[in-house]
Amino acid sequence: MKLLRRGGSDDSDKPAMSVPEALAEEGTAQAASPSKVTEGKGRPTPKRRDAEGRRRGPVAPAPLTAKEARARRKAARKSKSKDERKADSAQRRADASERRNRMLAGEEKFLLPRDRGPVRAYVRDIVDSRRNLVGLFMPLALVLIMTMFLGPVIQQYVTLAMFVMMLLMVIEGIYLGRMVNKKVRARFPDSTDGGFGLGWYAFVRASQIRKLRAPLPRVKPGDAI
Asked: N or C: the chain end with fewer CB closer than 10 Å?
């Protein structure tokens, strides 16, 4: 009985603790023991459409060659119905027509790289405001082709006249190139666009028939520029 009393009274010799002391001791024990804390994922929850996109598989890489791109377009057309293909074709023609109309109107966004910028627009206005002898190049070329079916005597005179006209066109082209460069330097002193390239640009436009020029002329012959 004495042994049992001793074993059961191991804690009886300790002084009784108050409630605050007991709570403090319990908190210390919990801090000493490792706690089980649920760690976060470290990333946001993906959206449903992103998760579904990943489940569908990887996106096909971009085509490396023109042949591969054509093959993909052909496969995409086969996967569509006849009506869908007709609608796509009509839409492409409408888009191409709209782009061409805007390019002819001179909208900067739709111009070819060679025609972009205020300097090139200014050169076009200079050329379009003049009556250029170089513009007779294409009509005279047609006349020369037609004279091939005539007699040899007439061919000689036409050939001589064509030679003289070509010489005059070359002289006018040189004059036009110099004049354009001079006016561009005066109007745009900080521009790097000039020299032979700008003169050739003016010569090529002047040699075209007025109605076939692109962009279309926005000034009339004789207008002050």
From this structure: N
Q: Using CA atoms, how far apart are residues 24 and 120, in angstroms rounded to an integer?
A: 87
Instruction: State how far the Cα of 94 lies from the Cα of 100, in Å rounded to an integer.
Output: 10
Round to whole Å and give the CA distance between 201 and 5: 118
CA distance 130 to 135: 10
State how far Cα 20 lies from the chain centre: 75
156/141 Cα distance (integer angstroms): 15
Nearest to 214 by CA among 92, 82, 110: 110
Nearest to 122 by CA among 191, 69, 27: 191
pLDDT in tens, 121-171: 999 999 999 988 888 877 877 877 787 777 788 878 878 888 888 888 889
